[in-house]
Amino acid sequence: MLRAFAQAFKTPDLRRKIIFSLIIMALYRLGTFVPTPGVSAANVRECIAVNSEGANLLDMFNLFSGGALLQLSVFALGIMPYITASIIIQVLRVAVPRFDDLYKEGQSGQAKLTQYTRYLTIFLAILQSTTMIALASSGQLFPGCSMPVIVNAGPTTYLFMVLVMTAGTAVIMWFGELITEKGIGNGMSLLIFTSIVSSMPMQLFQIGVGGGWGKVAIIVVLILLVTVAVVFVEQAQRRIPVQYAKRMVGRRTYGGTTTYIPLKINMAGVIPVIFSTSILALPPLVAQFGSQEDGWVQWIQRSFDQTSWVYLLVNGLLIIAFAFFYTSITFNPDEVADNMKRYGGFIPGFRAGKPTAEYLRYVMNRLTTVGALYLAIIAILPSIIMIPLKLAPGQMPFGGTTLLIMVGVGLQTVKDINAQLQQHHYEGFLK
Predict the structure, then answer these.
(1) What is the pTM of this model?
(2) What are the extents of the domains in the chain?
(3) Mean of the per-residue pLDDT values for the chain?
(4) What is the largest CA-CA distance in the chain?
(5) CA 158/CA 72 separation, integer angstroms
(6) How far is CA 188 from the centre of its chain?
(7) Which of 105, 145, 156, 310 is close enough to 303 for a disulfide, judged by CB 3.0 to 4.6 Å?
(8) Contact present, 383 and 311 (Cβ < 8 Å)
(9) How far apart are CA 36 and CA 129, in angstroms?
């Protein structure tokens, strides 16, 4: 692997792409430390140090922004508006026939959907930045912190901050597209990977200083074990054999080949975990606007703590439900069966058409059951580990979402580099 990595840098074209990707990722990290005009960086740091409730509440969103969200930097919103917009556009394919028709049109339709995703990203960035500024100005972002985080507060300052944060989201979206076009790997995924990895060393160091290095060693071992399990499951496939009958077109013979349909155990990826975490973050957010003496506020704070059995049970059930829902959107057995029938393909032992679709649906339901349980276990495991280690939610350096994203992005990037190396007749990372 090290030899292949060295050969990758010896290839001028691949070396240029890797260096370009690293430069963009460095610029992205630099922007997370630039405060938005109108924000007191010193007061923000002080509020983060003395207050943990706001960090726990917005932990996932702060994670995807590389810590920029709670610092109210120009890249405070991170990649989350784009992720949300992409998910919404994919879900609309089921509800709006126009979006499904665009998806089937090929490259021109995909370009149109990408354009819609960009517009929706900007709209969500305006909405989220307005919400963040409202929470910061009202003191709800950092409860218990008396120092103002926004100086010279006023309509003009708020409007300018919204414009700067929205422009920061547009720049991040541009960075991701630049990496995809001129670099190596998927740009948006690499930016998320950068945000997640950048915060882990500091969190491990803080645990070692405050709770002992034995906890750090346990966490590192668990990360390695879970990573191995995630790699094994993410690489696993159920291969459905497909045969194509021979057919004559003019004087040429087409078909007569045997191939397979690769079905992953986890077809939904990390999306169900993101959906579930986002929904479970809403009740604590609503509770912030109530009185601490109210019974319903206390029940929410007690029940939706990441170590409570209510939170773990609801989180697992939501992940399983969203896994089935999202898989049904991304994989349509009827469409796959129709395409196979159109080109003369069939699964041995099943007639083309409806019997093939029913068989594919049966296989996918079984795979999705295993994949959903796998996602639920990976997502709940960090919360269970926090109980014996006596760690607060904000102290845990990894979660199910982070590991799934890190391993998934790492595997895909290695495959992309391997493909580039094979084009230059080099031995790649994956054999």
Answers:
(1) 0.77
(2) 32-183, 201-431
(3) 80
(4) 83
(5) 12
(6) 9
(7) 310
(8) yes
(9) 11
Alpha-carbon distance of 320 to 292, in angstroms, equals: 33
Rounded Cα distance between 418 and 361, Å, is 33
Residue 242 · residue 259 · CB < 8 Å: yes
CA distances from 124 to 189, 240, 341 (A): 19, 40, 41
Q: How far is CA 1 from CA 4, 72, 427, 431, in A?
A: 5, 40, 9, 10
* Residue ranges of E strands in 26-154: none
Quickly count: other Cβ atoms within 10 Å of residue 256's Cβ: 11
What confidence tens digit (pLDDT) does each residue in 215-233 have?
888 888 888 888 888 888 8
- The tokens for 155 are 């309509």
- Cβ-count burial 22-33 (b if 16+ within 10 Å, e if not): eebbeebbebbe
Q: Name which of 226, 152, 142 is nearest 403 in CA terms.
A: 226
The two tokens of residue 68 are 């920029």
CB atoms < 10 A from the CB of 390, how many? 9
CA-atom Rg of the chain in angstroms: 24
The Cα–Cα gap between 352 and 101 comes to 24
pLDDT higher than threshold 70 for residue 98:
yes
Q: How confident is the model at residue 3 (pLDDT cuts 50, 70, 90)?
A: low
Judged against a pLDDT cut of 90, whether residue 149 lies above it is answered with no
Cβ within 8 Å of residue 393, ≥6 positions away: 56, 59, 305, 306, 307, 383, 386
Architecture in CATH for domain 201-431 = Orthogonal Bundle (1.10)
CB 196 within 8 A of CB 59: no
User: Could you tell me which of 209, 115, 121, 233 has the C-alpha nearest to residue 171?
Assistant: 121
